[in-house]
Design goal:
Helices cover 67% and strands 10% of the residues. The strands form 4 sheets. It has a 7-stranded mixed sheet with strand order 10-14-15-3-16-17-18. It has a 6-stranded antiparallel sheet with strand order 2-1-4-5-8-9. Strands 11-12-13 form a 3-stranded antiparallel sheet. Strand 4 and strand 5 form a beta hairpin. Helix 7 packs antiparallel against helix 22, helix 8 crosses helix 21 and helix 13 runs antiparallel to helix 17.
Length: 1007
Amino acid sequence: MRLHRLDLTAFGPFGTPQSVDFDELSAAGIFLLHGPTGAGKTSVLDAVCYALYGSVPGARQSGQGLTLRSDHAAPGTRTEVTLELTVAGRRLEVTRQPPWERPKKRGTGTTVEKAQSWLREYDAVAGAWKDLSRSHQEIGEEVTQLLGMSREQFCQVVLLPQGDFARFLRADAEARGRLLGRLFDTRRFAEVEKRLVERRRTTEARVRDGDSALLADAHRMQQVAGEAMELPELAPGDPGLAEAVLAAAAVARSTSRELLTTAHCGRLAAESAQAAAERALEDVRERARLQRRFADARERAALLEERAGDHREAQARMERARKAESVAPALELREAADTEHTRACARAARARDLLPRRFADAGAAGLAAAARRTAEELGGLESARRGERRLAGLVAERADLDRRERDDEDVLTETEAWLADWEAVRAGLRARVEAAQEAAARAEQLDGRREPTQRRLKAARLRDELARDLEAAQHKALASGEQAQAARAHWLDLKEQRLNGIAAELAATLADGTPCAVCGATEHPAPARRVEGHVDRETEERALTASRHAEERQAQDERALGLVREALAAATAEAGDTPTDRLAAEAEEGEENYARARREASALHPAREELRQAEQEHERRTAAQREAAVRTASRVGHRDRLERERVALEEELAQARGAAESVAARAAELEELAARLTEAADSVRVAEGTAERLKAADGRLDEAAFRAGFDTPRAAADALLDDTAHRELQRRLDARQTEEAAVRAVLAEPDTAAAAQQPPADLAAAERSAAAAAERLRTAASAQDAAARRCAELDQLSTRASDGVRRLGPLREEYDRVARLAGLTAGTSADNERKMRLEAYVLAARLEQVAAAATVRLQRMSSGRYTLVHSDDRAGRGRSGLGLHVVDAWTGRERDTATLSGGETFFASLALALGLADVVTDEAGGVRLDTLFIDEGFGSLDDQTLDEVLDVLDSLRERDRSVGIVSHVADLRRRIHAQLEVVKGRSGSLVRQRGYRPSGRLGSGDE
């Protein structure tokens, strides 16, 4: 950055316009800015800062810029600062006007005009200035981006202020941190610290929520366990809470299990007592049962004695039945033989009825011989039956050949008809594909034209609308201008009338004994009188206010007119002179053509797919045609072989079937006849055998009845009992015998007899004792179940608590990690031994760079004696990281910068300021700073040190830099030839410039 020219008007102490030519001053490399105290040397630097950033350094910026106006300026002169400079290869001119409180144009009082800014750039090709912006914000952003520095950085790097770096040398770590933080913009590191603190709070809240849930589970466990569990006196988030809750849960589970064991033992004791009571009840019940059993046996024995006669008659009846049972087999055999003979005769008669008449009188042997002859004839027809089945297969095969031949003929006919139109179909499909491709290309071209056409149409419509607005704005601006001129003429007329009658207005304020404001006399013998139509001050001020309002409306309408003209020019440049209707028609036509092309292009894929399917169909039909021709040729020989075989089989079968319709029908007739002959022969043979067995059964029956003692077989049959009567009689006899045995057994039982001798059993008392024991068992079981449920609930809650602790583990680890990082970056952690915050750590690195850069010049200024070093030692109980020490090469000791003398402090501060300028310049992206200002401090140097300091400053010219020194020291005016002197006076300050001449003569500039 290099400054060229600075123009001041009504700024600070400068009431009249002043100009500073920095090009002339910078030619010498070093120039002096001097003048009496309060003349306005610092105001020159403030003007540079205000031109660039719209504000001045430090506390001098107040009142929204109203305090920047010179008190010496004329009321109608507006404050203005113009700075011409080169930065980043661009020559710029920045003009700023702060807010201006001026008298109202109408009426009394004042009004505040807003601040204004202009930014222009010199176009070397055109040789003229071009406007860039009139926006405060845009100009500020543009300047900050070009310089790469904020206002604070600029004031520290370019405008080295009075005493700031001396205080920086003596300041503590916190003060140095604030300054370096503004210069190097380390807010992002502070944001990192803040972010870590917020994240620590968030994770801590989540850990507290998890601990709260864990405590809730602990309270539920305490409700379940009762006095067996004591909760830890810890709050959510306290260390060791999870371990304490798990330990208390373990104790509660152990206690609950002990209670469960005790309840189990109680239940076992109750079960034993209940078992003993049940055994006693069973004994009483058994004794009562035996006593009832003995009494029942005595009653049954008496009843048996009463029924003894009936028992003897039943025994005699059973004896006769037993004798008849020896004849029963012969009776059953004779009855079975008779039944069998009857059935066999009926079956033989039915079989003979199914045979031809020639077999009516044949015996069993004749029927069997006829069946054998028929079977032999049936066996001879088997070969003919196979031939008949083969003939049916030949007929079916011949029909299949005919069917397939017809199918192939249909295929050949259809294929020939389809292939005849193939070339025309393929050509049509290919034409459709090509037409769709051309439509797609056309649609793509039309799509590229749509956006420019719509843009021109939109601009044309805006152009038409703005043209109408322009005419209205012109009429409005013309009317407001005429109104403003009329209002101003009216105000001037009233002002002239008031001035003409001002004597009468002053006379109205005179009083006897009061001096006249004009002549000073205390007597007023002939005061002027107001004439008719006199204009007073209020009337004039109202006219002035109306005139100013009219001028403001005129200016506002003129600005609005200018905006409309600019917008109209832009719209016209975009749309041209083509009418809007024509552009709209062109846009509509373009949209229709585009839509039509899109519709035609959408048929591309279906057309390609249809062409592919048609080609596949052509291949399939061609192959089918070839295959059908091959099959037709192969069927000719096969048909001849089948015909010869059919003729031979028909001749053979005609001989075999005889009068029957077919061989199968003849075979069925023979099979049926053979079966009937066989069945008839078997039936006749069976009937003859049953007749012989019936005759033998009659002889055996007569012999059995005689041996059993019966006169006739009929008597034996009457004595027999059927199964039901026999079972009933035997049951009665057996029941009598069983009852007698049972009664004798019961009466002979020792236990029953002994029980009969004992007193009657008290069953109710035994049942009451057993019920009481059962109630005690239920109580013990309930206690055990409650203890078991308690253990189960505690196990479930403990498991859930353990799961919660496991889930909370990673979150707690995250909290510990974040808390450790937050404490480390904030400098409060024990791991951060030097208590250094992250931002301070970064600034410490920057301070090391600044100290290294400053040492290069400090060693030259101090003849190699002093070196600046950075120290990260802690000062007292404060934080470390931003310490600054000086190493004295004469003593070899390192000491604090506060021990330097006044002159040493100055050149150390100067070296530090120059080093800081280099580091901040590099930090700002390497923006070159060709102009620097140093404010005061040279009076504390002796001649030798002053020469060395000036040599260092003069060496800056090697880097094509210029340095402006602001100082009162008279010796500097002798040493430095290029000077800018600020002279103060009653009407404001002036600047006098003396340029550099190679011959050593001083050049005098204009005031």
